[in-house]
Amino acid sequence: MKTRSTFTVLMCSALTLFGQVGTELIPNGDYTKLDEKGWVVGWPRPRAAKIVKDGEGARLVLTGGQAGVNFTIPLNEEWGQLKLSTQMRVTDVKPGKDSWSTGRIAMCFVDENNTMVGAWPNVFGFVGTQDWQPCERVYSIPQGAKRLQINPCNLGASGVVEFKSFSLKVHRLRAKPGNAPL
């Protein structure tokens, strides 16, 4: 009987953990729920950003340099990887003075003191004029990271950056010693 109880507890724990895989971390990333000012419910207030709905569907539009939306996503220590998915279009984006001053998805992992943990993630960034580009990538969460700072933005000198639905999901749990995934 004790073996059966232990098995049941382990199975419930495993199902709870695996139930986290696929969890969406960006609320309303399809821009369907807007407040009375036309901004996405559950999102932080933006800089020079708006939601546009027209024949192309709904999208996040960032106009001019330094436009963006700064998210801080709390991380569960059991999560090992996150998957970012969106589409991005740039129009007349002029690069700024630094190589990273582009239309981009800026991001970094930080600890409890907001100190960067690990290397800068390989992010998507574009300049000039480019039609919709698929942006999908899996990011490993560095040990010690407590939050992800992620910012769809225009860090260029000028131009317009647009994003179709914006998604960040738990992709994989962290392997534990003696319990590595097959």
Give your account of this protein's structure.
The chain has one helix at 2-18, and strands at 49-54, 57-63, 67-68, 71-74, 79-94, 103-110, 125-126, 128-140, 147-154, 158-163, 167-173. Helices cover 9% and strands 43% of the residues. It is mainly beta and 182 residues long. The strands form two sheets. Strands 1, 2, 5, 8, 10 and 11 form a six-stranded antiparallel sheet that branches. Strands 3, 4, 6, 7 and 9 form a five-stranded antiparallel sheet that branches. The chain contains one helix and eleven strands; from the N terminus they run H-E-E-E-E-E-E-E-E-E-E-E.
Entry keywords:
182 residues; 5-stranded antiparallel beta sheet; 6-stranded antiparallel beta sheet; mainly beta; single chain; 1 helix; disordered N terminus
N-end to C-end Cα span: 29 Å
Number of strands: 11
Instruction: Supply the helix-strand structural class.
Output: mainly beta
Q: Helices and strands, in N-to-C order?
A: HEEEEEEEEEEE
Radius of gyration equals: 19 Å
Instruction: Write down the overall geometry.
Output: globular
Helix content: under 10%
What profile does the largest beta sheet have? Answer: 6 strands, antiparallel
The average pLDDT score comes to 89
Range of strand content: 35-45%
